[in-house]
Amino acid sequence: MNLVKNRLPLGHFPEVTVTEARKEAQQAKSDIARGADPVGERKAEAERKVEQEKARERDEAARVTFAQFFETWMLSGGPKDRSDGGAEVRRSFEADVLPLLGKKDIREITGPDVLKVTTAIKARAIPGTKNTLKRTSNKVFSDIRQMLRYAALLHVIPADPTAPIPKSAVGGTQKPRKRVLDFFEINRLNKMLAASSLNRSAQLAYLIMLSTLCRVGEFTLGEWEEINFDIREWNIPKEHTKNGLPHKVFLSDYAIMLFEELRTISGHTKWFMPNRLENGHLDLKALTKHARDRQRPEGHEPTQGRTVETRSLASSDEPWTPHDLRRTGSTTMQELDFIPEISDRCLNHLEEEQLRSTYLVFKYEQQMQEAWYLLGDALEIVTGPRAGAFLKAYTANKSKHPRDQLRVRTLVEQHAKKTDERSQPS
Fold this sequence. Notes:
This protein has 426 residues and is mainly alpha-helical. 51% of the residues lie in helices and 2% in strands. The protein is built from 18 helices and 3 strands. The chain has helices at 18-33, 38-62, 66-74, 77-80, 87-101, 111-122, 134-153, 183-195, 200-212, 216-220, 253-266, 286-293, 322-335, 340-346, 354-359, 365-382, 387-398, 408-415; strands spanning 227-228, 233-236, 247-250. Helix 6 (111-122) packs antiparallel against helix 7 and helix 17 packs antiparallel against helix 18. The radius of gyration is 34 Å and the shape is elongated. The chain starts with 17 loop residues before the first helix and ends in an 11-residue tail after the last helix.
């Protein structure tokens, strides 16, 4: 009869003493006598440890940190196709998101983790000001959610952990801004710009935004090759617009005057607003920051490292932003009797209702050209030597009975330069 001998290692001397080995051997004999299989148990335990180690290695290989997947997402169509190529997303994530979430396994990210990011952003708000950073919180939350949904789409995570979080738990539902500058405030702002420490390029930038209705990003990214001075057009490429559609701006006399002055400053470069090294455009946030820094609340100290002129552009109790200038230009067009259909097209707004966009395809280019030209006339008046007479007539007209009032358009036409005083459109 052949007996199979199984050896049961008891350890190595001197780590295991002779006494300990005898004790271990006696215990093994007792276990065998009870029907146990200590050799088999040890082999099974060793196999379990091997499998556990392999599983750990597989898990480690599959581990993707939040920061690593952020780079994957940045190369996707979401951020990459934005007008700035995702530069603002990267800036905000590197400042506010990655320091808190970057090293975590993306599969372990929870809704509360994301809310810690938005809470930290809101904590930076200056007490007593209207800028509570709720909008910034909502924007960052929206970008994080977009990234996590993309991760779920690729099966990197089972589901988006922010799905149950309502907007009210982040920055809250914000009322849309309705800030508009009237003719009197435009007059004041023009004087304040001229008296401020801002370089002339920045001063012209705000007036160009007001007269063309362009977005601050479209202007900052703008290149001189986009302007055709002969036919008085600025063709904004689709890569620079928010909706991804090219946009044609008809330049009024006033806008042409501003662009021609700006060309004397930066025309030797590729961009309307080059950076200091002139090897790229100005930072996309620069013009917004310049305006905000010069409209800080009364009594508040300057932002560290920024201008000390904290009220030099405060043309009203409520601060204005570059986007408010765009809204102001559009509203002024409507005050000049142009219907919202025209001003919306001048803003390059998409027609949201599918039925209307399918059947109403007329481009209104002539009407848009007229709207931009008349807006330019109005702005040239309220920022020029005829401002006093116009504003006096404008005020007196408003005090009349509605049936006796002149249309604002008529007042502008009465105070505008005569035909032979200005250059004719091509």
